[in-house]
What does this fold into?
Amino acid sequence: MTFMIPWGTAGRRPRLGRTATALTMITTAAAVLYSAAGLIRLHAFRLGTYDLVIFDQAVRSYSRFGLPVSIAKGVHNDFGPDFSVLGDHWSPTLASLAPFYWLHDGPETLLILQGVLLAAAIPPLWLFARRRLGQGPWTPH
It folds into this structure.
């Protein structure tokens, strides 16, 4: 009775394992680099803060189980200091970020989450591209 290894020769690893490892490393590196770039810009005062302040205040309000109030947007647009961001547009994603503010309450949390969520798009995009383009010389053998 002969035992055959499903992927061909003994000692050769399946492609998915190497590809998954490489994809995980690329995704992790991208998350770290995107987050670091945002944090560096924030601490160097080179970040456009108007939108960051609006969303920071909205997520902070959600984390305290309140309406997403943004004083900055309300005062800037003459809506008053109790302006709810829900009056501008509804984004359930902001509410889903609120638990992270229980760990750290500040704009740094949003910048780190932005980097992680942006990098999280890499695996689905890679799968889409692989299905559309198929195997090629760029895929590991």
Remarks:
- Helices lie at 15-43, 49-63, 71-76, 92-101, 107-119, 122-133.
- Residues 15-43 form the longest helix (29 residues).
- The chain is about 60% helix and 0% strand.
